[in-house]
Specification:
Elements: E1 5-8, E2 11-14, E3 27-31, H1 40-51, E4 55-57, H2 70-75, E5 79-84, E6 93-95, E7 98-100, E8 107-110, E9 113-114, H3 119-130, E10 135-140, H4 145-157, E11 161-167, H5 174-179, E12 185-189, H6 194-202, E13 209-212, E14 219-221, H7 223-243, E15 246-252, H8 260-272, E16 276-282, H9 287-291, E17 300-303, H10 307-313, E18 321-322, H11 324-332
Parallel strand pairs: 3-4, 3-5, 5-8, 10-11, 10-12, 12-13, 15-16, 15-17, 17-18
Antiparallel strand pairs: 1-2, 2-9, 6-7, 13-14
């Protein structure tokens, strides 16, 4: 069969892996992140017509492979889950069968690659910031893998050494943190500030950090923005130290966000410090759910599921909400840590 691909809104979706499955699925179940949900009706229709299989889709957005709808596979034994928008996750999935690092074989990932962006123009603007002869690390969100590769080559032609070019997740920055001592600057290829902010926090705001916007065509220094957010996170750590007497350790229920080791380590540290705590389970944490609790129940929270919830969603909550790494810094002292 020819390649099974479609271009929508200047994004290429290659579903060819669905044609190589050993067993024909009884149904296709599609899910996607916020920006791609609006495309799911058209993608489902395309796949249904081409493959002759019923295709359904999930309305709520999936924020990463950590929130893949594995429960849907249990409800539809012969179906295949098509996860659009992400293609990499370094952490384990934990459930009744223990923890494993691989998704079930009935999950197919389709990144959705952006076909726009001017790599040459972005490279020229980036060089104006980092300087010729510098060494940089390039990070990118999944949709911009192709553009980032071309951008890296354009940088090399302009006298910039690219020591690292890797995908960026909202909670995984290990390759970039390791590279911090051997590069002069970091360049993040992504729309919005989400990925750049995460990397900036992981680097403790100590690195030169720039963002190349594929949609607007600009390159900007995001160090100031990261510094402002980091200052707020440090203030929350201070508040946690001052008031933490009874803490809720929020444990995720989604297989990709259930981290029993992190939960146990956090609980053990609180116990050693003489701080009372409860382990509270939640599938999709929100401000509204925390507001359901009696104000006197807890004075602080630690989120062990998705660390970005503590930063973006609950960063201005009226009580301190920390990531595991921030809680570690609060309880043991030392340098700021993000996310773990």
């Amino acid at each position: 069969m020819d390649r099974l691909s479609i271009v929508l809104d200047n994004y290429l979706f290659d579903f060819t892996p669905l044609t190589r499955l050993e067993q024909r699925p009884s149904m296709l179940l599609l899910e996607a992140p916020q920006g791609f949900v609006r495309l799911l009706p058209r993608l489902a229709g395309f796949l249904s017509r081409r493959l002759g299989v019923e295709a359904r889709y999930r309305l709520e957005p999936s924020y990463g492979l950590c929130s893949a709808s594995l429960s849907l596979l249990e409800q539809h034994p012969g179906a295949v889950l098509v996860h659009v928008g992400h293609d990499y996750y370094p952490y384990p999935y934990c459930g009744l069968g223990g923890c494993r690092y691989r998704l079930p074989s009935r999950v197919v990932t389709v990144p959705g690659l952006y076909l726009g962006g001017d790599a040459g123009s972005l490279a020229e603007k980036a060089v104006q910031h980092v300087g010729r002869g510098s060494v940089v690390a390039v990070g990118f969100s999944t949709q911009h893998r192709t553009l980032a590769s071309t951008l890296a080559e354009s940088l090399r032609r302009r006298g910039v050494e690219v020591a690292l070019s890797e995908p960026l997740l909202g909670c995984y920055f290990a390759p970039f943190v390791k590279a911090a001592g051997r590069v002069d600057a970091f360049l993040v290829v992504a729309g919005g500030m989400f990925h750049a902010l995460g990397l900036g926090l992981a680097l403790r705001g100590e690195a030169r950090l720039y963002r190349a916007d594929p949609y607007l065509g600009g390159v900007e220094d995001v160090g100031g923005y990261v510094g402002r957010v980091l200052a707020k996170r440090l203030w929350l750590i201070h508040e946690f130290r001052a008031r933490a007497r009874r803490v809720a350790v929020l444990a995720g229920l989604l297989p990709g966000q259930h981290r029993p080791g992190v939960v146990e380590a956090t609980a053990g540290l609180l116990e050693r410090k003489g701080i009372e705590y409860d382990i509270v389970y939640v599938e999709r944490l929100s401000r509204e759910l925390l507001d359901n609790l009696d104000p006197a129940s807890y004075d602080s929270y630690i989120v062990t599921s998705c660390p970005r919830l503590a930063v973006e969603d609950l960063g201005d909550y009226w009580k301190p909400v920390l990531t595991p790494g921030e809680a570690l810094a609060a309880l043991l002292g030392g340098e700021y840590r993000f996310p773990w």
